């Protein structure tokens, strides 16, 4: 592999001094190229256009000095080593240079130390970059852990409540049924209907917990997926849901190329969005509908869901994707549905937005990448 030359930006007004620097570096076998500037304007332009690996600067120049140069570097966000190469200086001046941000200083009378100073400064900058990267990753992990712990606390509390409440309701109704006159079939039928409703709430909660767990735990399983099959399967799965037969389902799929994604996770998204459209249909309207419009191209798949249900109040919209959020008492699950939708879309490396007008309906738009190349899985 060919070694790239070290790119050195030299701020120096004496060309002979640049020649001395070059000879010292050549003697040490360092492969390099230099770009010499000696004015403020040239230096600013070089910071913008020349991708230097290191800056060597004299202190005193006709128009400005090394302290000014350091300030310009900071202002430009330059993160490469800055080494002062100058004549004799006092100890106080040397300390001042380092405080200003210089990585090292080398006297022109002792240029033999320059190669080592450059190599050490480059290594130090590389370590700093690695440390910042590690710090950033650690900070991100800590933020994720805080989020997970917060969600876990909410999860344990809310799920225990959502599981216990319908169970206690069923037990209470069973006790009432035992005490009731066995000949009163109407009362018993009402109790059984109420028990069935409680069990449905329990089942809905358990389904949401299972979807949440699978999405968080399992890796992506990328395969070619059939959108027609996924949509039809969701419709069939929810066929016996109360109100499913009262809502018109309009489907439009424009698939110019195959879609490669995680079919299970797409099913989770479809099931939740369709289930919501059915649950929150507007009973006051003559006709209820949900429309699916899906477009697939080489890069991405775009999904648009629109219903004319009860809608969501504007002040509640920012919270619809929160864990355990319920916009209405008609919700029978744990309030995980839309949270799972958002988490699943993000697991598929996509984005989702919601728009809604109370009394008119709700729409969801999301996009996911078409992961059709093995390299995209890395």
Automatic annotation (TrEMBL):
Residues 7-123 form the Response regulatory domain. The modification 4-aspartylphosphate is found at residue 58. The keyword Coiled coil applies. It comes from the Bacteria. Residues 124-151 form a coiled coil. SUPFAM superfamilies: ATPase domain of HSP90 chaperone/DNA topoisomerase II/histidine kinase, CheY-like. The keyword Transcription regulation does not apply. PANTHER family: OSMOSENSING HISTIDINE PROTEIN KINASE SLN1, TWO-COMPONENT HISTIDINE PROTEIN KINASE. It catalyses: ATP + protein L-histidine = ADP + protein N-phospho-L-histidine. GO terms for molecular function: histidine phosphotransfer kinase activity; phosphorelay sensor kinase activity. It comes from Chryseolinea soli. Keywords: Coiled coil, Kinase, Phosphoprotein, Transferase. Residues 158-372 form the Histidine kinase domain. One of its GO terms (cellular component) is plasma membrane. It is an enzyme of class 2 (transferase). Its EC number is 2.7.13.3. This is histidine kinase.
